[in-house]
Amino acid sequence: MVSQHSPIQVFGATENNLKGINLELQPGQLIVFTGLSGAGKSTLLFDVLHAEGQRKYVETFSPYVRQFLETLQRPEVESIKNIRPSIAVEQKNTIRNSRSTIGTMTELCDYFKVWFSQVARFIDPDSGNVLQHETPQSQAVKLTNKKDSQFIIGFIAVRPENLSSKDFLTFLIQAGHARGLHGNKFLHLEDIMNSDWSEIEIFVAVDRVDTQKDSKSRLIEAISLSIKHGHGLGQVRDYSGKLLNLLYEGLRSPESGRKFPAAHPSAFSFNSPIGACAKCKGFGRIIEIDPTLVVSDPSLSIIGGAVKAFSGKVYGHCQDELLQACKDKKIPTNIAWSSLTKKQINYIWQGDPTYSEGSQKWYGIDAFFKWIEKKTYKMHVRVFLSKYRGYFNCPSCDGNRLKEDSLHWKWNNFTLPDLYRLPIDELFKKISTYKLTGDPKSDLAIESIQDRLSYLKDVGLGYLSLDRTAKSLSGGETQRVNLTACLGASLTDTLFALDEPTIGLHGKDIHKLISILKALTDAGNCVCVVEHDEQIINAADKVFEIGPLPGTNGGEISFEGTVAQLHQSKNSITGHWLNQDYLPSFLKSPKRKVRSKDPFLHIKNASCNNIQKLSTQLPLSKLVCIAGVSGSGKSTLLHDIIYAGMINSNKNTSVKSDIDFDGVVVIDQSSVVRSPRSNPVLYSDAWSPIKEAFGRTESAKRLGFSASDFSFNAGNGRCEVCTGLGYEIVEMQFLSDVQIPCSHCYGKRFKEEILTVQLDGLNVLETLNLTIDEAVLRFEHFPKTKRKLSSLKNVGLGYLTLGQPLNTLSGGESQRLKLVKYMTTLKKGVLPSLLIIDEPTTGLHMEDVKQLMKSLQEIVESGHSLLIVEHHSHVLAQADWILEMGPGSGKQGGRMIASSTPAKLSKLNTPTGSLLKKKTQVILSSIQGKEIQNKNISNFLEIEGARENNLQNISLKIPTNQFVVITGPSGSGKSSLAFDVIFAEGQRRFMESMSSYARQFVEQLGKPAVDRISGISPTVAIEQRVTRGTKKSTVGSITEVAQFLRLLYARVGTQLSVQNGNPLSIASETEITDQIEKIVRLKKPSKKAPLFLLAPLVTSRKGHHKPIVNWARDKGYDFVRCDGQFLNTNGFEGLDRYRLHDIEVLLEEWHNVPDRNTIRQSVRHSLQMGNGRSLVASRNGDTSIWYSTSRVDSSNGESYPELEPSLLSWNSARGWCPFCKGYGKIYQWMKDDLPATGNWWKMEDGEKCSECNGERLNAVSRSVVLYGAEKKKISFPHLLELTPNEIIVFLNNVQLPQRLQSVASAIIPEIIERLKFMTQVGLDYLSLNRETSSLSGGEAQRIRLAAQLGSNLSGVLYVLDEPSIGLHPKDNQKLLGSLRDLQSRGNSLLVVEHDPETIQQADYLIDIGPEAGREGGKIVGEGKPAEVSKIKGSSTAQYMREGIKHPMRGSWRKLASKSNYLKNKNWLKIEKVNFRNLKNFSIEIPTGRLSVCCGVSGSGKSSFVRGFLFQAIKQSIVEKSDDLNLVNGRVKNGNIFNKAIEVTQSPIGKTSRSTPATYLGVWDKIRTMISLLPEAKAKGCPPGHFSFNVKGGRCEVCKGAGRIKVEMSFLPNSFVKCSECNGKRYKEELLGLYWKGKNISDILEFTFEEAADFFKFDNYLHQTFSLMIETGLGYIKLGQISPSLSGGEAQRLKLAAELAHGIDKQRHKNLHKSKPTLYILEEPTIGLHTLDCKKLISLLHRLVNEGNTVIVIEHDTDVIAEADFLFELGPTGGQNGGKLLYKGKTAGILRCPASKTAPFLKKILN
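Given the sequence above, the corresponding structure tokens read:
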């Protein structure tokens, strides 16, 4: 078996310039890839390793989701073994979501909200005092401490409006209350009733207490009752009735009585609807009309257009109305807006206060925009508004993003947003002062906060704050934040690919970064870094140098080994640089001296960000470096002060230059261009001499080509089809898009004719393929070209080809290309430039830095000035001057700490000065300063404090790389642990590496309720699916093979004519011209037999078409051809509007052979007018040939649509057959929409569609083919008819043009991979067009596994939900073998399972229990299966030891005699069934018995029981037939049943309004009972008031749902508890009605167990609820929403509901006995623990005991063993199945040698 930490192996990587590289990477190591720029480092790491790891993991998602994810292309490589899921941490920031901050990226916000909710104190906004959370106990203590000891405790009762005073007081008396406050006296309520009391409210006394005499418990009870009856608010009064205190629970202001919610983590999250500010939805900003945009130029007058919004034509009338209003109010309109008074401006904005719609008064600019905002459904209105909208701080939360209540919580006088705003350095100091409690669980959040903050500090980001938006970060900052997030995520066995993480990091901080990288490796990850920094390389466990040279001369591993070996290598260029110390020589080398008389750049009192009043001067015409630690203010100084000051020199006074510059230019590493049309030879202006030389050649002149034609961007020489691009992009939907060569020029970009022209033996394409080095030698005789190209060579770009698209260059290559422009000596009269460069050494090897420095020095020598932000010691040492910022970052930076030459700076004790000291001192001290030791990689997934759903705060360690099974009773919490905790967290952590755009399409799983999860790998879930899809669902669609095949046919298929089967024609304009010229010369037109050139105007369209013919007439065309007949456009009367017509306009009538130029111009005109189509025809019709630049049938000119996957889908209107709508069959419900003609009405329901012959697609879609061996063509529907092995053979021999091979190679391997796995799981007999509704449960289950388990990932945690469902024990053995194979590839398996065989096979077993629901969620036992089986108190262990004794009833029911079965109705007789794989199948099945159908998967069980028998019995009942003869079989005695029911696992309801109580029908009875209470009657509440589905008593805020949907921008919609009813669904007045201490909401919260006890006085309710307990559903709540029930729970609920109908039968013995019922169940044991299986079996027996017949399709041996009658089908699946192997008593099967079930049944019966 492969070890979990088996190496990643790459064989034969040939991506880009790689030359068949083989390598091996060991997880748990830091691996550095280095080498010269352009050698292939990034290609190897990102395009090969990362691409394969990311691609494989993304494939585990659905095709729908994959099309939105950034799916990387399959790399060019022979094979990659043991690849891990990969996360790329690159130097780019693609985040655009305003919600994302550093805090959310690193999950610090998640930990802060937990910690803050524990430690913060609530500050009362009314008094400013700290409020405590009050309880009756704490209130009692306060009363006890008062001076006075005698109080009256009570509550305020409010009289309902519809209730009289007398009835209200009567109600209070009936409720047990005695006294109330009337006037200033406490009187009996009867006395108050007899008085004239008619108030709205009354103080009702609960108790009179004396705190010195009465017990404390009495005081607490009185307080509790007063709070309860007062709906949360009680009162304390003295004997005179004076209010002394309010009584309450929770947080309330003693000043105002205002209630506040308790601290909860969600209340401190701006991404949660509970905590987010309601106005801005947690953004902190809102979008509103910006007055400065509406009046953008205050110097303008009103009449001059000051109000910009009124200046256009659309709303120009508003300007007129404004002028009239100003005239009326005498507001001057000819003076500047800024000169108007505040009152006048307010009037213009606010309008007349008396304005109303329709009045003539001024409405105001504000009202105008409010009116406009009502019309935002119109696009132009949205565009208009966008011009005048701006972002503003939210007025509700003031930018804090949280609700007001959350901002009253503080820690050390800081709100949570206050903490988020602090720089990380300062925040870390404050948080470090918090003292740990010593409780690991309480301290978990704060420890995680401290760890993550220290990570951010270590990577040099201490100057940032947690509220900094992610989209505002630089690429380097984003990379380092993501790096710390990866470390915090605690993922293991993952490939991390990093691209130069040292960018932007000062040398002194790199050792901290190394510690982060080492921590990732210590967790068992494979950390791969593309890097050139010496410290990182020296810290590596393994180094790969890619080289030896850039470009085509690279792509090889020039060194592989340890750092020590690298230092000793004589061939490694990296080793050479590491062994040499160049700093001393650099510092001593002569520099340009800085003198006082030299020109300077003067900075005076400049302030920006952390720089405050900086004054200094920098020498010009020199190479000046700005250095300093990260966040010290370098970029602020360079960009925000110097650059901004120089380009705005007129407005800026803080920056002055002694030199006038031609330009101030920022040279960054962004791409020079985004288009592939520019290249190095064009950018450097070196191409003109070459193309002019081409134009002067004799061959060019002979062919009529000029110099301008030797360009792929313009002229007549480029390919017309691709317009010189050379390729086309093929969109691959859920695969990465593929770039293929142009179909016409095959990627050459030029026409064939121009490629025959040669210059010095090379054509233009071959010339562009020369490297710059080669071109410099070849074109020495072109001085300009040589000079320009030599400049490129001098900056180290000689390896680039002349024609390489500039958008493919790296950042470093792009930057050097930009520098070339400034490397030539300044001409006289030309001003120098100031070049600003930010970290030019990014992406450069030390050898490349040497070349770069030569270029930079040459630029300075040319007269320009250079300002560079840099950390690289070699660049700093070679500078003329260094200005160092510091000393720290953020607030600790922003100051100039040194400004001198490098030599002087190296003697100072500053961070940069230390960096310039001797190399050994810096590097060795930095690495030795922090010891880095590899830890033993953990082999456990550790979980602490899991509380999701019913989990009881469990903690456990799960071994990795093992087959782990989680078992336990149904509802015990197994799936909660496996899926809601482990899978959710593993996928969530990995998905954080995806783009925010992509994540919105994935069903995002919330962060589970768990304290800590560590050692988790990326997870893949294979969940239980028992549904089999619709009638359109096929084997091909659920395995995803059909989706890939559609893509294959759409991208490389050949489209044939529907008429004659010939391929459609497609040609370029030039080819069409050639073809037409050939036809014209062949036909030799004359006056008697002219040829016509026409362009189509109308094709197969109804109408009289007069407008289009009149248009042709007006354009000067005299004739059109309508339906083959030429008509004059003058006097055209129109055509029959109800018929289809074809109309072409006559463009040319040729009576002789025109010259080529005439033909070319005519063809171009015809193609433009005909939208790419043209027709050549003769008068007599013997010539009629269509031409097209797209797909067209040359025989009739019919244009065909572009091939898209939707055209080949029977689920799309574009692809499906128009008659059967893609079903392949005609059903009765379709016939109303079918044509009246034909024999459609005669067809049987479900008969094959005669139009498409059952192929589901329309004629055009059926005519797309692929060619196989010997040119055999096969369409998509025909391919689906084949078996997997037959399809593999065809695809391996598919014939395609060379240019389409790359497309096919991206798709075909994906198809074959999935088909092979189908074969491995024994499904090679299934065709892909087989309907999934016809599959057995076992087949459906194995297909689903085949679709998911086909990837070759390693290091993944697969979480499976009962993979054995639907499998015969024999097939389960195959499944276990497949799972073991998956494990052997280095994966971990976590399986939720009840199957005894699977449990016994586990390496490690976790038993959750001991019961279900609230009594579950605990770890009952864990360990090896043999160890767990010994545990006492575990139902799993008990079954493992003892099993179930069969038959449970003591004996099997006897079977009746078959003699005279028609009369006695004891047997069902089924004869000659021919259905699917059943051939002449016959059997007798006893009635009134439990019958079980078993057999291997695919043997025909479902086909017989569900497909034939169930349908036949239903038809027998409808037709009341005892002998029903059908087309596919015969059934006798089918009419003995009252009804036939299939009890499936489909949900009992789909909305939150459906519950078990409503489904069972008990809720109506309960509502009626409650409505009979005196209190309910007093309030006038009928039964309907107690329904949460209709108006009356339900809460109208949430409409009785108990929760409210909250839409959160850029986040999944959330449901929050309704604040009005607190999730209780009902109005307050109904919640105040108590019955036996419980209100209506409390009853909904009952479990069936609690309900059975509560309603034991009612026979029907008690027995119904007891029935639920009997079936193992006692833990389910009455009000649980139906969609949350599992399939097994829903099925048992349905069975119990059927039994509940017979509860009152004993009372109705004398009534007429109704017919029995036939129950059909397929695999009811799905999802059931063995304990629950016993309950299910008892339930089935009860159904039979009541006279019903039960037929079960089942693989579970315990159910099979209980059968009174057993029949088995087989012997195998598919066409070799469908035979009866055994029928009879259960015990008899043990003697049947043909039985596949007997060996497994024997284990439990003997």
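The radius of gyration is 41 Å. Try to locate this feature in the token string yourself.
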